[in-house]
Amino acid sequence: MKNSILPTVLFSFLVCLGISGIYPVIFGDVQRVVGVNVGDFNTYRFYTSFNSSDPSAEPGRSICEMAKWLFELDSHQVIVQNISRTNITCQVIVKFKNGTQIAAIGWIDVADGGSNLAQQGLLPCLFTSANLTAGDRMYSSTTDCFNETIPRAYLGVVREVNHNNVTMHESQKGVDYDAHSNMYYDKLTGSLLEYNGQITCHNETYFAELFAKIVVEGSSVVPEYHFLAFPLFVIAALLIVTLCRRKQSF
């Protein structure tokens, strides 16, 4: 079982297969624009889990070395440094669970999805175009579309979010591999808000499952909900109602 997983399945789970520019443009496209500004930032937290029928199994041996790397990550902070037409250049500060960190510069084109982020071991699909909606392709170079546009809460704020779901199945030498992933992007800015997915490999005698969730935990483009705002709003509403009732009683 060591490192036996198919590269296509692995790529789907870990670096968002289907939006990496491997498909040709085959139909008309919408206008694609950058929705963030220089200085904007998003901070992502990593959550991972691993289960196996073999108590001694480890993600790096049972799935692949890249899976082991996922378990070492704590967070990514992404800071927009430059924008040129549809190209975003950003600094990514990678923090590990052992307390160390590294910084790298990468870029992504929100029009065609071209990027050098994955080659540097960074989250590859950090941004897409602003103002896309259900049925639109995630990038002009792929046939993958957003399945739906839905309300979803992040940082205590409900946002309009574009959701894409990818499911794959492969078999090799009697072993079945299944991958499922979900990506959620802020519609207004095109920023990645959440990625979650799982990959399983199994046969008649063995089972292994890896789950990963990457979710925004701080952002300048998704303003955090301030808890004082709700009580003040309630107080103001009650005051208006009270004044109206008193006015009607005269």
Sheet with the most strands: spatial strand order: 4-3-2-1-9-8-7-6-5
**Span of the ends, CA to CA:** 82 Å
Rg from Cα:
22 Å
Q: Tell me, rounded to a whole number, the average pLDDT.
A: 79
What letter string, H or E per element, gives the SSE order?
A: HEHHEEEEEEEEH
Main pleated sheet: 9 strands, antiparallel
Low-confidence stretches: 1-13, 15-27, 226-237
Tell me the strand percentage band. Answer: 35-45%
Shape, principal axes of CA atoms: globular
Please give the domain count. Answer: 1
DSSP summary: helix tally = 4
Given the helix and strand composition, which structural class is it?
A: alpha+beta
Assembly type of the shown chains?
Answer: single chain
Strand elements, count: 9
Helical content class: 10-25%
Question: What keyword list fits this structure?
Answer:
alpha+beta, disordered N terminus, 9-stranded antiparallel beta sheet
Task: Explain what this protein looks like in three dimensions.
By secondary structure, the protein is α+β, with helices and mostly antiparallel strands. It has one domain. It has helices spanning 7-15, 59-62, 65-72, 229-249, and strands spanning 41-52, 73-84, 87-96, 101-109, 148-154, 157-172, 175-186, 192-202, 207-219. A nine-stranded antiparallel beta sheet has the order 4-3-2-1-9-8-7-6-5, covered by helices on one side. It is globular.
In short:
This protein is α+β, with helices and mostly antiparallel strands and 250 residues long.
How do the helices and strands line up, and which of them pair or pack?
Layout: H1 7-15, E1 41-52, H2 59-62, H3 65-72, E2 73-84, E3 87-96, E4 101-109, E5 148-154, E6 157-172, E7 175-186, E8 192-202, E9 207-219, H4 229-249
Antiparallel strand pairs: 1-2, 1-9, 2-3, 3-4, 5-6, 6-7, 7-8, 8-9
